[in-house]
Specification:
The chain contains 15 helices and no strands. α1 crosses α15 and α5 packs across α6. The chain is mainly alpha-helical.
Length: 357
């Protein structure tokens, strides 16, 4: 019992330190983004504006190293190192979600850091019902409880649980961010994902359902310029293939960097190969679907449920083969589950301290 209480006190102390670093990092990030809004935005778009933005990008590359927690380092790497840096580089050339320049600093900060953008034509049918979100939270709670019995679960079932964990945690976190930003800005925001488990193809999964802001940024930052340049030396289909492949290759490199932040292990290249494989398969899928016969069959095919099953199965199996092994070897998955319980211990310790005092 004493060892258990000591463990909880230790986790509470770690949570205190991580929260302090988290606050310091976000204060620094907000000041840096404000500098871009008030100083960089006044410089003509192009190389000179990019030179004023690059020091901020370099700072955002360092921030995740301040944390030992998977959740803190991972979230900072996603929001600042990945999203904010790509958006600020695009902003340097008047491209991406920050162009045209948002009307207020608060909007500029939110649109820079988070995977959100204003919804141009709000459609109530696109809003996810609250009960669906509640069900996802409940499933996530059950999932955390199941980790206590993981020694009795098969590797295949554990792989499914890991995939479900990553999806649900991202979905819940991004929904909370969306709600917070909605209350702050008072404007409709586009959803971050669109039920990826219903994807009917890899193109549908990566382009229209999973983490929608990321493909939107990669489309502007990688796919379009690569395809435009490739068209000068090859035909349209080859340029499209190269654009898709380059996009997945860059995504793989970014994921390698994020894996380094959260595991502190040198990259093995497995996650890059995961995205290279999906890039090749997605590009081939796009090329095949452009054929007239296949296009007609796809429109009238009654086997959408089969294609959904095959798509999700391919994502899960290839994830188990290439995506998850580096995370499992580093113990990151286990830390992820343990850290999910840290906020509960933290709140309990604070309440206990308040009652005793």
């Amino acid at each position: 019992m004493k060892a258990q209480l000591l463990g909880k006190e230790t986790r509470s102390g770690e949570m205190d330190e991580e929260l302090k670093n988290f606050i310091k990092v976000w204060i620094s990030a907000i000041i840096s983004i404000a500098y871009c809004y008030y100083i960089s935005a006044r410089i003509k778009s192009g190389v000179f504006r990019l030179l004023t933005v690059l020091p901020v990008c370099a700072l955002f590359l360092v921030f995740p190293l301040f944390f030992s927690s998977v959740h803190f380092s991972g979230s900072i790497a996603f929001f600042l190192t990945w999203l904010a840096n790509f958006k600020l580089i695009l902003f340097s050339f008047d491209q991406g979600p920050l162009s045209p320049l948002p009307s207020t600093l608060s909007r500029f900060i939110c649109f820079t850091c988070f995977p959100i953008k204003p919804q141009q034509n709000p459609n109530p049918q696109n809003q996810i019902p609250k009960w669906v979100f509640a069900i996802k939270v409940a499933i996530f709670g059950v999932l955390l409880h199941m980790y206590e019995y993981k020694q009795y679960l098969s590797p295949s079932l554990l792989l499914v649980l890991y995939s479900l964990h990553i999806y649900l945690e991202l979905e819940i976190a991004l929904m909370l961010v969306r709600g917070l930003v909605f209350m702050t800005l008072g404007c409709d925001l586009e959803p971050q994902s669109n039920e990826p488990y219903l994807a009917t193809s890899l193109q549908d999964f990566w382009g229209h359902r999973w983490n929608l802001m990321v493909p939107a940024i990669f489309r502007v930052a990688v796919y379009t310029p690569v395809r435009r340049l490739a068209k000068r030396i090859m035909n349209s289909d080859q340029a499209l293939f190269l654009g898709v492949f380059a996009t997945f290759l860059v995504s793989g490199a970014v994921h390698e960097l994020i894996f380094f932040y959260i595991t502190h292990d040198m990259p093995t290249g497995e996650v890059t190969w995961f995205f290279v494989l999906h890039g090749l398969c997605t590009a081939a899928e796009v090329a095949v679907k452009k054929q007239t016969v296949v296009k007609r069959w796809w429109r009238v095919s009654p086997t959408m449920s089969v294609s959904q099953l095959l798509t999700v199965a391919f994502v899960v199996v290839t994830s188990g083969w290439l995506f998850f092994p580096p995370l499992i070897r580093s113990g990151m998955i286990e830390r992820l589950a343990n850290e999910a319980l840290m906020p509960i211990d933290f709140v309990k310790s604070k309440l206990l301290y308040f009652v005793e005092s």
